[in-house]
Structure formats: C-alpha cells, structure tokens
Amino acid sequence: MNMTPDLKHALVTGATGFTGGQLARTLRANGHTVRALVRRVDAPAAQALEALGISLVEGDVADAAAVDRAVAGTSHVFHIAAVYRSANHPDAYYRAVNRDSVSHIIEAARRHGVDRIVHCSTCGVHGDVAEIPATETTAFNPGDIYQRSKLEGEMIAQQAIGEGVPISIVRPTGIYGPGDTRFLKLFKTIENRTFRMFGRGDIAYHMSYVDDLVRGFILCGTHPDAVGETFLIGSDSYTTLNGLVDEIADVLDVPPVRGHIPIAPLLAAATLCEIGCKPFGIDPPLHRRRVAFFTKARAFSIEKAQRMLGYTPQVGLREGLERTAAWYRAEGYLRPAKKSLAA
Questions:
Q1: Distance (Å, whole) CA 175 – CA 86
Q2: Successive 10-residue mean pLDDT values, the chain, 343 residues
Q3: CATH numeric code, 9-177+207-235+301-314
Q4: Which of 254, 300, 303, 332 is the most buried (most CB within 10 A)?
Q5: Half-sphere exposure of 262 (CA within 13 A, CB side)
Q6: Where are the domains of the chain?
Q7: pTM beyond 0.85
Q8: Which intervals hold domain NAD-dependent epimerase/dehydratase (predicted)?
C-alpha cells in the first residue's frame, strides 16, 4: 500500500460546515481535485462550493450507499462531518452521524482502494482533563453524548488501523476563526458587556485557529509517519478561560469582565430548561453541555504532531482573535471598530 500517496482526488465530508468548508476550499486552492458529500446540492453553502470547482455528491454520511458513491474514485477521504452539541437531537442521531458514519467511510474506502483516510475526532474524548497538558495517551473521559459518540467512532477507526487500513486520527482543540459562529455569542456578550463568568474562570482552555488545523489535516493526509497515528492538533499554547475572555475584551476594545457568579444556579437552570423543552422537541436556550464551557479543563500538548509531522501553528491567539473579530464586524455581527484619534 502506498504510504506516501499523492493527494490526487480528495473527498471532504462536512464541507458545508465551518471546518470542513475551510479544508475543502484550501485543498481546491492548492490545485487538488475535491469532492464534497452534502445533504442538499441546492443548499447555498453547497452551491458556493460548486462555484469554486468542488464537485458535489448528494447524500448523508449516515447513509452507507451515499458514502460509497462519494468515496468511489477518490484517493483521500477527510471525514470531518459531525453533529455537535444540540440538545434536541436523540442519542441515536449522534451515534448515526458520529459513530456509524465512520464504519461507512472505512468500508467504502476498502472497496475503492483509498490511499488515506483522515478522521476528525475531538479533544473532547478526554473530557475534563486532570493531566495538564493532556496528551494522546491521556485516559478517555467523555462527558456527554457528543463526546461519547465521537469516541465510539474513533474506536472504530482504531480497530481498522489494527487491520491495516491507512487512517490518521485528528483530535482538534477548540476551533475558531473567520467563518465560525460557535464563538460568536461569546464575542457579542463580551462586547455588549452582558457576559458573566460562572465559576472561577481559572480552568485551562485550548484554542485551534482553523487555518492551522487545516494544515494539520493535510499533513495527516500526506505525511508517511501519520499513518496509523492519532494527533492532538491545536495552537502551541493554551490559556485560561479568564485569559481568553480578557483577550477578547481587549481585541474588542471594551472594559475587561469583572466578577464571578457561582456555577450551581446556572447548572440548575440548564437542567430545568432541558426538562421543560425536551417533551416539545425544542433545543433549549441553555443546557448542561453548554455549562461545561465554564467547568471542564481543556489543555493539551501538540508535541507529537510537532515532532512526527513538523506541524507548526502559524497564528497566535491574539492574531486569531483579531482576524475573527474583523470577520464578525464585516458580517455585521459586531459593531464597527472604533476609529483611532489619528485617523
């Protein structure tokens, strides 16, 4: 089997999302032939990909037949698609997307002789880490259905690695950058001074700028030493939640956040929200998985990726936050930047 394969024709799942989309566009900009598996080819995000020369296959990653159609004829598969934290999805849906799709990808790759699979897992499989910084060998400790289903999918990939399937596994840290809206609420509430720090805010938090993460994915798809390995990918340093909030406030040129509120009332409110919304199939505005933002430590070592792959993050936290804030402003999500007196 070719262990240093040319990246001739890549399939990207999750390409209409933030991370998968950035990966697909980068691969195409680098001259590669790219295909995307999308749920609807007429969706605006899918049409935007097609306009860049990315071919589309309609289907769902939970559908083995659709995955087979998408994989046929490709040399590399980047499996980025996932369902993230949303309380209105049943556990079975998480497992269909985050676990069962991995089996579909692997089976199709075997049938069609794919050179390399890059499977996107999550640093969340380690849960609330006690070891600072955590490494790829730190014990698993998933704390919710998203993390459990991602771990189950990763275990399927690990089993296939043992059977000789050329797979690399990536566990990204908190992904952000222009185009992301997951951190938008944090920026907006800091800007309008409604953000409240629940708990002490001294837990570790590790970010991953999307362009750096994409470089990590591509390295895992092309470097000979990546086969059969698992890598934590993120920035080269971590901060605390207090530090992240302070940095965002400084980037936005607003006063720093002051004061801390006990976490217990927030957790109780989240529990009541979930109980009240679940019978109606409504995604609650607050749920326990979001409370974990304030309580679970996330700090990881990327030394393995640096040593084995030559992975080197290019964008520091301050620059990444500035780029993200600039995109939010350009999209009208945040107020325009204040003009300097010199201007």
A1: 17
A2: 70 98 98 97 98 98 98 98 78 94 98 98 94 95 93 98 98 97 96 94 96 98 97 96 98 94 83 78 72 88 98 98 98 86 48
A3: 3.40.50.720
A4: 300
A5: 4
A6: 9-177+207-235+301-314
A7: yes
A8: 10-234
